[in-house]
Amino acid sequence: MRVVSNEERPIYHRKRERERKIHKELEYLEKFIEVLKPITTALDYMLGNNCYYGKFLPTLISVRTRLERLQDNNLRHFTVILPQLKESLEKRFDKFFTLSPEVNGAWLHDIAWLIWISVVLQP
C-alpha cells in the first residue's frame, strides 16, 4: 500500500470518494437493468415474433411472475418501483389477467383455429 503525503491527502480522499460514488452508481444501474429485464425481454420476444393472443397472454403472465420474484429479492433501491411496475402492468392488462369475455373470444378463436388446422392437416 502506498503512503500518501499530507499534500496529496485531500486529492486522495476526493479520488476515493469519487470511486465509491461511481461504484454505487454502477451498482444502481445494474439493478435497474435487472428490474426492467422482464419487460424488455417480453417486448423483444413479442416484436420479434408474430404475436397473437396465444403468445401474448403467457408472455404477460411471465412478466408479472418475474416482477413478483424480483420483489422477493429485496432490491433496496427499487422497493417502491417494483410494486408500481407490477400494479401498472396489471391495471393496463386487467382484461387479459381476469380473462374478460372479449379476451376469451380471442383465446377461443386461437384454440378453434389450432384444432381446425390439426384436423385439416391430418393425413
Radius of gyration: 24 Å
- Beta-strand percent range: under 5%
Subunit arrangement of the protein: single chain
Average pLDDT across residues?
Answer: 80
Structurally, the number of domains stands at 1
Number of strands: 0
Task: Report on the biggest sheet.
Answer: none
What fraction, in percent, of the residue positions are helical?
Answer: over 70%
- Structural class by sheet pairing and helices: mainly alpha
Q: In one word, what is the shape?
A: elongated
N-to-C SSE series?
Answer: HHHHH
User: Which residue ranges are poorly predicted, with pLDDT under 50 across at least 5 consecutive positions?
Assistant: none
N-to-C span: 78 Å
- How many DSSP helices? 5
Lay out the secondary structure.
Blueprint: H1 9-48, H2 53-72, H3 81-92, H4 94-97, H5 101-120
Please characterize this protein's 3D structure.
InterPro entries: RNaseH-like_sf (IPR012337). This protein is mainly α. The chain has one domain (9-97). It contains five helices and no strands. It has helices at 9-48, 53-72, 81-92, 94-97, 101-120. Helix 1 packs antiparallel against helix 2 (53-72) and helix 2 (53-72) packs antiparallel against helix 3 (81-92). The chain is elongated, with a radius of gyration of 24 Å. The mean pLDDT is 80.
Question: What's this entry about, in short?
Answer:
The chain has 123 residues and is an all-alpha fold.
Which structural traits does this protein have?
mainly alpha; single chain; 123 residues; 78% helix; elongated; 5 helices
